[in-house]
Protein 1
Amino acid sequence: MTYERYTIHDYATIEERRMHTMPFINKMIEKGLAAEMILVTEAMQEKRLAAIAETIAADDMKKVVLLAGPSSSGKTSTSKRLCIQLMTCHKHPVALSMDNWYVNRADTPLDENGKPDYETIYSVDLALFNHDLAELIAGKEIELPTYNFVTGKREYNGERLRLDKDMILVIEGIHALNPMVSEQIPQENKYKIYAAPMSPISLDGEKWVPTTVNRLLRRISRDFQTRGRSPQQTIAEWPSVRRGEDKWIIPFMKDADTVFDTSMLYELAALRQKAEPMLLAVPHDAEEYDIVERLIWFLRCFTPIDINQIPITSLLREFVGGSIFDAK
């Protein structure tokens, strides 16, 4: 079979065989099949989420879904898309973010260098989080907190929640699988998901693009757009983020009931349009420039895709903007 004969059906076969190669991706784009590649990638992820939702819905004891994963894995979009699939199973999901249970910024633990450690499990108010979960499972009403990232303080704005029949909590956060965050909840009431990019892209059948590159490019794009952070700032804090993942997140992957692969076959081609201009603006004398140069090299291996082709429900929209889940 030659590239000239590729059709959408041929693509599905290759995807099933996990032949994630840069030449194949570029040829699909150059042959005008970018839209088909995007739609099949999205459909396969949605199919997997639907299967997970059906498993959860089939067990009436499951009241809390805990979804964790390392930075920039797409946890927020995954949790909201899972909620939609649970609705098709006649459940009433409620999506919550563990970020809202952060301790006040002034109380954030310090790392070995005396700087605030936002990656540690102790950046979460564990006592309050466990108390609120236990109250909800017991059928009681609680007032939900909201973390104000501008003031660095937890606030209460009168939003209240009680779990009724067929309601399921879907809670996402980097520490969601750590047993300390839900130790008061019986195991039979929990369903745990580990979400992260799992399928690296091969450049030539032997060399691969590490999935950490995908995540860093996602984070650079998101932080620049939503937090006004430069690529240098994001890159500078990346080693601390990775150390926190190795200590507090990845060890609990083994405890998950299932794993959800958030890799997107076309994402580096799409991220190129967003991330490359940001990276090219970094001064050559910046401390982070060696990493910037490496990221640009990876991006330029891929023919760019117009991000307007990406569905507004896509996980990737969390990082390039325009997600329907951000709509107010």
Note: Residues 1-18 have pLDDT under 50 and may be disordered.
Protein 2
Amino acid sequence: MELTDAQRPRIAIIDRNTLAALGLKAMLGEAVPVAEVCAFGSFAELAEAGADGFVHYFVALEVLMANRDFFAVRRNKTIVLTPSAAEEAQPRGFHAICTALPERQVVRALLALEQGAHAGGRHLPQQGGSRGGVLSEREAEVMALIVRGFINKEIADRLNIGLATVVTHRKNIMEKLGMRSVSALTIYAVVNGYVGIDSI
């Protein structure tokens, strides 16, 4: 059963950096496919959209500092986007993700939050429909190795198959699932239980 727009949980991203906000919006769309992810360039835009109608806020550090009273009472729903991974750069009492990390580490941090906050997605509404074709057992094995960071040659060696076969499986996996990047594939694999978050 497909969720209506009114049933979909809403996630807000509040960041003046448009490119960063759009990138995070795409990642969150993959990590929490049942959610509607909205990006705002300022706190005023969030307020205009009905600030209390969101289940989570991904907020740039400068926006948090300027609107700390609002986010302090919603700290369990707030994830701060920080420019540094240094402990002293993390706001006390808030979950935080460093946006200066490599893409793979940002994806891992998002998945860790999703898995912790929503018990592997079990506390989120079920998504209607299917994400694509069902993967074969071999495709699932190949996908698990891809998201763990193995290159095609290493996958071929581990599974004792030809390099061309790995390339074909890789193409079929991406087409069946409608994925365009390894990051999206990683999110899909973890959220759907193909690999554990500790293995990526």
Note: The longest helix spans residues 103-118.
Protein 3
Amino acid sequence: MKPRLVFVHGIGGPRDAGADLDEWLRATAHGARAAGHGSRLSGLTGGWAADVRFAYYGDLFRTAGAQGTGPAVGPGRSGEDDELVAELLSEAIDERLTDPALTATELRVLRHARTQLAPPDGAQGAGAPGRHVVNALTSLLALPGLRAGGGWLSARLTAGMLGQVARYLNRGEPDDAGLTLDARIRRRVAASLDADGPTVVVAHSLGTVVALETLHAHEGRVPLLITLGSPLGVRTAVLPRVRPQPLATPACVDRWLNFWDRDDIVAARPALERFVLPNAAAAGPVSARVDSDGAWVHPAAKYLAQAAVAGPLMEALTAATGS
């Protein structure tokens, strides 16, 4: 039986799912070739080695009644969303500040951004959390791995994209049928999974949270779950809000590999095995660091182009063929 490969995207603006799928496959091909799996690439890119799906849910972040694509990347919907983003950034910065390899410039930028998130004078007022987040991000975008020239275009847009994490975890925004935003997103991802045959799942950023929650209700087999740039370990803003608690590996998962980049500030506290319980089959996350070149390291394609990521992915697809 041909296995299914499902890519689950993370935060970001409106996207062309087909174009993103092509990009992710090209990156995987690059990493697979580097891992010595060049002979298997035609099967992946040609579609006969795996049934490849891109689970797209980005359009669900658009605010009902809004025009164009702006609301998908605009500021958080509420002060509660902004507060959660501020918590996420604060913990990410605090974790990064513990790195003994920080340069003097990185240390200065991180400390300044941390102060901007919680001004010593306690300045508040309408929209204060949102303002503090934008101010801090303006500073953080000068860091390696976050520079605006390589990724997000501005601090305000970045705040809106990070706000998608808050909007998902705050479990609000019900539709006319009462289904909340997070439930609608999981329904999209669940529809891409194979209920009968094996499914290899590759999830990125916010998609790692979505995939984890979705897989807890999945009855098919997942021989490999790969998570990239995951915020699951963020102890205050993310970890306690993920369901179900305590955080555990879904029963359907046989193996879980988690990858993080030092310069990916979204992946704060990346060693997920410290926070996630194994399932009954003793499968749990195994985390490994990768290092990407360039100013912008968070995109999934940067991770997938790594031999350490694409190699196990290709091996899992090969092993699942005919199973």
Note: The chain has ten helices and six strands.
Protein 4
Amino acid sequence: MKKEIIQAAIEQARKTMNENIGGPFGAAVIDADGTILSITSNSVLGDHDPTAHAEVNAIREACKVKGTHDLTGCVIYATGYPCPMCLSAIIWANIKTVYYGCRPSDAEEIGFRDDFIYRFIEDKRQDKDILAIEEQGREECLVLFKEYDELAKEIY
């Protein structure tokens, strides 16, 4: 079944890639019982949305299908090793297993730039040429955080 699922992700990515909707990235989320919840592709160009990566799109669709933000027990298949944003989305969704096709070096070889984000994270977010991060308004924001905590809402 794994081979058929990754093949379906490849075909979805090929379709939208050839329509200039996104790159060579496809993803599928499979429920614990083997049900296919979503098969999507990268749609960054078509949606004009830098977050519309295949894995994020697959997670969004799977969550809608299941009616939850928690994909515990699901697995995700991707045509490429997930970028840092997609890895974060996968972790936030409580997906514990990722099957991927191409390595980060394969994506870098054809011009994708995940590597500089990995380096930024590894360098403890200190490269201001990539991104400047500065604390601002902490005291005011802490009030908001305290209000949320006092409401005893679900932590996700």
Note: The first helix runs from residue 2 to 18.
